[in-house]
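Entry for the shared binder. Reason: the reviewer on the internal report wants the predicted structure included alongside the sequence.
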Amino acid sequence: MASQPPRAESVALLAKLEAALKRRGIVTDEEIAQKQASADRANPMTGARMVARAWIDPEWRALLLRDGTAAAEAMGISMRGNPPLGVLEDTATVHHLVVCTLCSCYPRAIIGYPPHWYKSSAYRSRAVREPRAVLAEFGTVLPAGVQVRVLDSTADFRWMVLPLRPEGTEGWTEDQLTALVTRDHLVGVSLPDAGSKASRAA
């Protein structure tokens, strides 16, 4: 679903805020432009590359799980001005689902802009109350023995999921693995599949 255009009053409020920050010397036009350009460049492929590297490089995986922000910076992704990034490792017995119950906090620096459904009140409330039902609507049906752990992204801390590497991907290159990972995998609503169209195209 396409994102809705911002309301006129929201645009006007943002313009007033930017003007006030510039008057006080807190931010410059150049800094605002750089931040906007960085946000526009961000997309799920960045997070996908981080996951793919974690699947094939144990040392990188350890860094990613210990300090997601440092791992992103090590890949040349500027995290300046962004909240800390935590990375949630899925296992055979635990699956993670990310939600922002208050609004739409999201690791934009590494995944890009959040989809419309992530910001919807339905997802934000139901992901907490009935996560398995929400996952099923995305086509993700987990075995009864797998615990679903829901994590709340906030203004102070953002989360990304490190999904399980699919079986059948032994010997794949980092580029092939990157093509396998989508935005939905990075927030935990779906699971990577070695037989997916994305992987066959890599």
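Summary line for the report: The CA atoms of residues 44 and 119 lie 17 Å apart.
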